[in-house]
Specification:
The protein is an alpha+beta fold. The chain has helices at residues 17-28, 44-54, 72-82, 96-111, 114-119, 123-126, 136-152, 166-179, 187-198, 200-211; strands at residues 6-11, 34-38, 61-64, 67-70. The chain is globular, with a radius of gyration of 17 Å. The chain binds glutathione.
Length: 212
């Protein structure tokens, strides 16, 4: 199983938080993989082919042997369960309650905060900041993000739980929507987000996005 090659379908504009998640997972596991870049939106023929193989024609898509898998969380869970600790570094907390919380936060980050995500898109995280101030619903969602992050991240900490986990990459990216746009947030959360950006696995994605 483990010896089969891995391929990740990503996107050529380097702004997808879901591709970011899958790539960080592969990097954390220290697995060799090849990257295939697709344009966004995915051209219909390629999307149909991807959908035929992966069920859902989206990126990220991970290919491992006969398995073609989309959905970033399904990908990181598959990697965690296929390339297990202690042969490979952990992606998820070992403590079951922490693991559940990590999944809770990652689920929330994927389904909520739309006004903030629209006002502070990932293009403004990996590229030039936006100029409009953060107001109204978007500011309210930023405050909710800050409230949630503050429940997990104490001053001086660089991980939500005892050790780093893949939810830290996602939470760091969410907070970077504020940091990179010079929006107000507590200094310790900005420092936590910067610590994620400095992590080697995360840097691989951030550096590729900067070089595009
Ligand atoms: N829930 C999915 C979201 C994946 C997703 O929406 N991917 C977008 C790129 S960010 C995509 O492939 N869109 C297809 C298209 O735009 O043609 C995940 O977590 O992986």
């Amino acid at each position: 199983m483990g010896a089969m090659s891995l391929r990740l379908y990503a996107e050529s504009t380097w702004v997808s938080p879901w591709v970011f998640h899958a790539m960080v997972a592969l990097e954390e596991k220290r697995l060799p993989y090849t990257l295939e870049l697709l344009p966004l939106p995915i051209p219909p023929a390629q999307r149909d082919e991807l959908a035929a193989r992966s069920v859902l024609g989206k990126v990220p898509a991970l290919v491992h042997g006969d398995l073609w898998l989309t959905e970033s969380l399904a990908i990181s869970e598959y990697l965690a369960e296929t390339f297990r600790f202690p042969d490979h570094p952990r992606l998820f907390p070992s403590d079951l309650a922490d693991r559940a919380r990590a999944r809770q936060v990652m689920g929330w980050l994927r389904t909520d905060l739309m006004p903030l995500r629209e006002a502070r898109p990932t293009s403004s995280v990996f590229g030039p900041p936006v100029t409009e101030p953060l107001t109204g619903k978007a500011r309210a969602h930023a405050d909710e993000l800050i409230r949630v992050a503050s429940r997990f991240v104490a001053a001086g900490r660089t991980s939500m739980f005892e050790s780093w986990c893949i939810a830290d990459a996602d939470l760091g990216l969410a907070l970077m929507r504020l940091v990179k746009n010079h929006d107000e947030l507590p200094a310790h959360l900005a420092a936590y987000a910067e610590a994620q950006w400095a992590r080697p696995s995360v840097k691989v994605y951030v550096d590729r996005a900067a070089a595009k």
